[in-house]
Design a protein that fits this description.
This protein has 339 residues and is mainly beta. 4% of the residues lie in helices and 44% in strands. The protein contains two helices and 22 strands. The structure holds beta-D-mannopyranose.
Length: 339
């Protein structure tokens, strides 16, 4: 069997640790987790659910920072090795396309993607309720806000790293105004990042009591591979003590990513370590980004832990894709007729 390949660029400096010999899973944690702890900058108590890209030989990141007054904002940071981050104490300042200040209020769970020569950021903002916001930068100095893609309520917006059949592709999770007790992953297309349509349902939550029984949401920007788009996503189960956020992985069709080909029956990572089970919100592992090296197939996964910490885990593309295929279970709502 030929090896599964990542379609993309080499990244020799991708953060990496080999899998511990006695470890059974296909996603393993960095042994120095968490990489960002409590009170990392004067303004913020917690930095988590954040997103990173390679930039100028090192890395740039857009971070969710919960300020000490309780509100969430997004901040910019840089790192040489992807592990030690220098994060600005002030939130990002946005202008609209006419150059006028256009500052979001509440802002959280940013996803960052390089598409052609531009870095796009999709985050969740307050637009009469939780909704997606979109912005861009080319240099991480000037930040321009674009039109909000959708009306409320919606969360977990993730833009694909390239157009497909001429259109931009955005995953999202329609929700409600609170701590939504339902949710499936949808896909929408746009020719210009302003008008969105051709909405499709990609994947559903389900299975009473399962790790993904209550809701699911797209996590990191999908990784293009020879077998399809590899997508890490979060799945939530409702327990008598509140939600538990684990994560799984799915493979979407390369040319029609509204079609899920495989998805893991079991989670690939669930809260087990103290920094995942204990914090501001216990029992949360929430993937928002990856860095990957097309040459070796190494993947570093960035995830938020317990709504408090930033953490890193690792996977190897060939092993992971083969695992997903061998341990896949589609749910009834994933079928073509519901798409
Ligand atoms: C979701 C989002 C995430 C958070 C998660 C667990 O609704 O708000 O930012 O990590 O809840 O609290």
């Amino acid at each position: 069997m030929s090896k599964v390949k990542i379609i993309g660029e080499a990244m020799k400096n991708v953060p990496w640790q080999d899998k511990p010999e006695d470890y059974k899973g296909v996603v393993w944690r960095h042994d120095a987790n968490p990489i960002i702890g409590w009170n990392p900058i004067p303004k913020a108590a917690r930095i988590y659910n954040s997103s990173v890209v390679p930039f100028e030989g090192g890395f740039a990141g857009i971070f969710r920072a919960d300020h000490k007054n309780g509100t969430a904002r997004i901040h910019l940071g840089f790192s040489k090795d992807g592990l030690k981050w220098d994060i600005n104490n002030e939130e990002i300042q946005w202008n609209d396309e006419q150059g006028q200040p256009y500052q979001p209020g509440y802002s959280y769970d940013p996803r960052l993607v390089k598409l052609e020569d531009t870095y796009y950021i999709v985050w969740c903002t307050d637009f009469g309720g939780a909704s997606l916001a979109l912005g861009k930068t080319t240099d991480f100095k000037e930040f321009t806000r674009l039109e909000n893609p959708f009306i409320p309520f919606n969360r977990n917006g993730v833009l694909f790293p390239r157009k497909i059949n001429g259109n931009y592709i955005l995953l999202s999770r329609p929700s409600d105004s609170g701590h939504t007790p339902f949710g499936d992953i949808f896909l929408s297309e746009s020719p210009d990042l302003v008008y969105w349509g051709k909405h499709r349902r990609v994947m559903t939550s389900g299975g009473a009591g399962w790790w993904q029984g209550t809701k699911i949401g797209a996590g990191a920007v999908p990784i293009e591979t020879s077998e399809g788009w590899l997508m890490f996503y979060h799945g939530v189960s409702g327990t008598c003590n509140g939600f538990v956020y684990s994560f799984g992985a799915a493979i979407l069709d390369l040319e029609n990513p509204s079609k899920v080909l495989y998805r893991t029956r079991d989670y690939v990572l669930t809260p087990e370590k103290e920094y995942e089970t204990t914090g501001f919100v216990p029992n949360v592992t929430f993937p928002c980004a990856t860095l990957q090296d097309a040459e070796t197939g190494r993947i570093a996964i960035y995830y938020g832990a317990a709504d408090t910490f930033s953490a890193v885990a690792f996977a190897e593309v060939d092993e992971l894709i083969n695992y997903i295929k061998a341990n896949s279970q589609l749910l009834p709502g994933d079928a073509e007729e519901y798409r």
